[in-house]
Amino acid sequence: LLEGNRLEKCNSTLLQGSPTLATQDWWTGTFYHIWWLCPEIQKYWQKIHHWLQEITKTKIEIQPELFLLGILNKEHEKDIKYIILHILTAARIALAQRWKQPYTPPEELIIQKIICAEMESLTMILNQ
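and the corresponding structure tokens:
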């Protein structure tokens, strides 16, 4: 890890080399921006949010604690909680696998991740 002056020098060199980076907000390019604040990523999470509300028939707030960390602030039935966390985990995995791409993961990939996780869960039950 870079410390103190070396980190500042690195950051200032990067900003000087890119006029667009220098004019953007400080969080652009950070982990939080890439996973939450980026307008394209916001559209992605809106789509996942819509799926969750449609599937669970409950109101779910779109918050980074839930979508990025899986922290449920509201009480849900066990089955609903499982579905929410299951879909969000699949969505995060799909996004992590495609993070360098100029587009968000397609719906088919997210659905594939959901099915794959479900099959692993069923296999574990059968092996016990």
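(Above: one complete record from the training split.) The CA atoms of residues 108 and 114 lie 10 Å apart.
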